[in-house]
């Protein structure tokens, strides 16, 4: 097992956290830019490069409408359609990433993208926070027995427990996360990292959406994080979905240096340093209570960025549901949430008692 991710199979803490540069879809489907970003992230200290394998129909219904993101309001389904790439794109960028001695990492969003990713034989898989409750996807990936990172933004302890139980026979690492773009540093509650590790008996790290290049990553090291993930861009003025909240190369390098310094200095000295530099009150707020709860900046997202069962077409009152009439999707702000994803397996054959508009969540009162 490569030393850059053997923390998933070894006991004890690794010498240095795995540093992941999240490129996501910021390459906009341009393989030349994807390679340029990968090389720049490597030069900035990344150990691992993460991509997203996007098919719009696996994520949203077309009726989701306009969504406000850091770069402005956009029709998200249409934007995701423009970010779809052929399997050959990911095969080529995986080969290039590994040629630089880096670990290739990718996030699938449904069974189609998962099947494509499985063909690439990745050494590590990432589940994004909104998919943490996507039972069908988790069961598929858990069956691969591939080491996996599970991001835990906009989730409760019960949500995390349900996901961990699906991966009971697999090697996993939980990534503490706040699902807000950008996320305030003071929402991070980093003392939760060792608590998550203790509660679930697995290693833990952090996926950081905050602006500051140093505070959350360095302090997360002090709390025992074995993974640090941060969005990467060439410039915050680039047109990628996440570029406005990502770290350009100089800032990413500053982050990796801060992580290395924190590892060498130790937790006590690092916390003391940042309290002196940034103030005791700020650092204590970032470290938090260690109690798992939805952060203030992500509370409104719960149930909306997560997955639920949605109607794929207008479904009349009195119809008998059949596969294809519904799918497990993100709700976002303009549609109502539906049943939890585990209902997907049992909906076929049920009779509707209400009209369900295309895109809206299918609720319990719609089938009983």
Describe this structure in words.
With 368 residues, the chain is of the alpha/beta class. The chain has two domains: 6-299, TIM Barrel (Alpha-Beta Barrel); 303-368, Type Iii Antifreeze Protein Isoform Hplc 12, CATH 3.90.1210.10. 31% of the residues lie in helices and 17% in strands. It has eleven helices and twelve strands. The protein has helices at residues 31-43, 76-82, 87-99, 111-119, 135-142, 157-166, 192-200, 215-222, 249-265, 267-278, 280-287, and strands at 18-24, 48-53, 66-69, 72-75, 103-108, 125-127, 148-151, 172-177, 203-208, 227-231, 307-311, 326-330. An eight-stranded parallel sheet has the order 5-2-1-10-9-8-7-6. Strands 3-4 form a two-stranded antiparallel ribbon. Helix 8 runs parallel beside helix 9 (249-265). It is globular and about 65 Å long. The N and C termini lie far apart (50 Å). The model has no long low-confidence stretch (mean pLDDT 95).
